[in-house]
Amino acid sequence: MLDINKNRIIDLNNELSDIEAVISFRSTAMTLEQYNNLNKIGTIWNLNKLAGDFWYNDLVTCLDTSIYNMRDILAYFNSKNVDVYDSEEQLQGYIKEQVIELDKQLIERVTKAGGPGSYELAISDLIGYLPLLAEHQMISANTVAVERWGYTSNINIEELKMVLIECDYIRSFINDELGKENIPTSKSFEKDKDVKLDGNNIMRYAWACTEFGLYNEAEYIFSTLVDFSNHVMEFARNSDGPLDVDFIESDLNIISTLGRYQDLSRYRLSVNIGLAKVYTATGNIEKAKVLYREIMELFPGRAPVGISPIHYWIGMNRIIESTLELYLISDEDDKPALRKAVSEMFISMRLSGKPNNFGESVCEPLLVIYMMLKTIYK
């Protein structure tokens, strides 16, 4: 098992002890100093960083140009002695409909130009979305995190030890079972009764280590999950029919069923994003590029034979986000093609669907638009 950098964890836990972890869209107040401290220590998940950057740097300016005057709306609710959160979905519903309207206007321009292949995105297509991002964050009060776990404020050393043990079990499973012709099952994988292979918890600690700058631990966890993904996808490709593997469905709780190829692609998207982020932080740029390009292949119309594309709204958005991450670490000669890919995927996503809830399916695409304006469409 990988040795844990205990002293660094203890030091960081002490340093960040005054920061209460964000655990939902309604975060506790985090000061700019605390936010900057987190950025210095490690690498925050990109969408969290975009949310924080926007909250502290650009929100007020964008509110001044908002379609709805969110300050007046909030004042109205306060005057009626109504908790704004009681009507949060209603308010977010206004924003969702406005996002859909802007998407509709873009689609009309694309159609008039002759289709996606004849249209190149411009700043004017994107800038109108930013006030909606400001409104969305204002409704959620002090929100600066968009993911379910929020920012990391501490790491439990004993829990991290168990996660690393779980990764050892997964690696053992890959070597002992996935390398054989037999279909792997939990029955053939005897594990210690105290080891609970919870995929969500493993991912949580992978990101916690990344945010804490514990890159050796983060790389070990993420690379274990990426290796697992590669081996399982190889099994799926070589199978004549659906594979119902208890280990995947119950014990590991990462992929629901091997026979559902979209779940495999969804899992690959998540683990590749994490490992690519670690590689970028540690200067392994070429390795990060490979992972980001694998993510790009998951977009509809780009997937090679044997790989099921990702069609769900947030998944397509995260592929665009990953393409932007690749753009940032690529040579200048490669950037025009990546810019074109971002434009094509952005338009294709809007042609294929629309936000299906008031929360992340609205907020995350708006944050990626913010990233597009910060990187490509300056």
Uncertain stretches: 20-28, 178-190, 243-262
Radius of gyration: 22 Å
* SSE pattern: HHHHHHHHHHHHHHHHH
Number of helices: 17
Question: Which class do the helix and strand fractions yield?
Answer: mainly alpha
* Largest sheet descriptor: none
Strand content: under 5%
Principal-axis shape equals globular
SS elements, strand count: 0
Quote the average pLDDT: 77
Distance between the termini: 46 Å
Estimated helix fraction? 55-70%
Structural features, described:
It contains 17 helices and no strands. Helix 13 runs parallel beside helix 15. Helices cover 63% and strands 0% of the residues. It has helices at 6-15, 32-41, 46-57, 59-63, 70-79, 88-113, 123-126, 130-139, 157-178, 199-211, 215-238, 246-252, 261-281, 285-296, 313-329, 335-352, 360-375. The protein has a domain at 157-311. With 378 residues, the chain is an all-alpha fold. Residues 20-28, 178-190 and 243-262 have low confidence and may be disordered.
